[in-house]
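--- STAGE predict ---
source: upstream dedup step, 1 unique chain passed
mode: sequence only
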Amino acid sequence: MDLQRKSLLSQVDFTTGKKRNRQTNSLILLFCTQITKKLIQDWFYMLSSTVSDTVVVSARDTDLLLLLVAHLPSMPSANVRMMAGTAARRQFFNIRAISENLPAGSLSALLPFHALTGSDTTSHIQNHSKLSAWKTFQDKHHLLASLGEGELSANKVKDAEKFICAIYNCGHMESLNDARFLLFSKTKKPEALPPTKDALELHIKRVHYQSLVWKQASCQ
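--- STAGE serialize ---
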């Protein structure tokens, strides 16, 4: 048993895998901060066997927050919340409300977007925060929807490259190297350029693998 799984099991009842809140009908599942595939699978197994009307997951991890949103359709509980913050200042995120406010048809692209723009296991895009990249995601999320599903084809890589071009305001271009040439001719600043095509392809391979793990997180 790995260290992360021990951290999870130490927070719950060893006979039922659950810890009841005595004052409410909620099921509280407490996570450690290091999220692994096995840990996620354990959590989904426990969640699928609960009859509670409310599930509260306690963690301070963006990866986990997006995993909850992405896998919400497969959860039996109608009311799932994530508890974060500190003891003095608690925050509760309504997972269903977040899911319902996503751009239409974008749920399958959410985890690839997170991996592409930077997560615990993948690097971020230079000079672009998630907030700025989110503006592109709202209109072009379809370009990322198939990442993390099946084999990584040339078309999937090309679509991801188009998405990165759009982040750098070169949405009319399909080649990242062409976008680099255009941006350099305007700014003359190497630090303002997107990654090279070769570097991006390696990044996309990591993104595809991480998205594959995340999208299969609810599979036993």
